[in-house]
Every structure is written in C-alpha cells, then in structure tokens.
Predict the 3D structure of the following.
Amino acid sequence: MSMDAVFKALADPTRRQLVDNLHARNGQTLNALCKEMGMTRQGVSKHLAILEEANLVVTRRRGREKEHYLNPAPIAEIADRWIGKFEQGRLRALADLKKRLEGPSDE
C-alpha cells in the first residue's frame, strides 16, 4: 500500500476522528461508529472505504454485522520512514549539547 493513500486518508479530520475512535475501542460496527460520529451511515461508510483503501481499517464479518478494526501498521511505517529519521538528528544534537554542557571528562 502506498504512503500517498495513507497521507490522503489521514488528511481529513473526520477520518482521523474515525481512526481515534477505533483506537479507543476497536472492533466497532458501522452503527456504533455512526452514533459516535453523529453522521449518517452513508457518510461514515464513504470515510471507512477510504481508510480501508489505505489499509488503515480492516473488517471482519461477525454474523450479519461487519466489525471495523484499526490497522496501525501503515502509521508505523510512516513513523519509521518520515518521523524516525528526523528524530535521530535531534537526539544526536541533544546528546552533543549535553556533552558540551558537562565539560571535559576527567580521564
């Protein structure tokens, strides 16, 4: 799955709220998500379809209902690819600053 689809899916505040709701309580039905979001079934379904395309949400049938689950893997990939590499430089800079503030060692 492309990161572009994940970024596009997470660009919308309603979809981010759906992700947050599933993070808080995974395995919700469409009806439960509609109540939580205060939206129509059609509206929530459209947003869920985009999240599913981005592989951020997976579904499982349970009887007549479909449960929606958060798939955190694409978000972790973004964190590794985009956030992690920028974080490393900042941590190195903080370590260097700490060394300078501590002064020369007594070796």
Remarks:
- The first strand starts at residue 28 and ends at 29.
- Residues 96 and 102 are 10 Å apart (CA to CA).
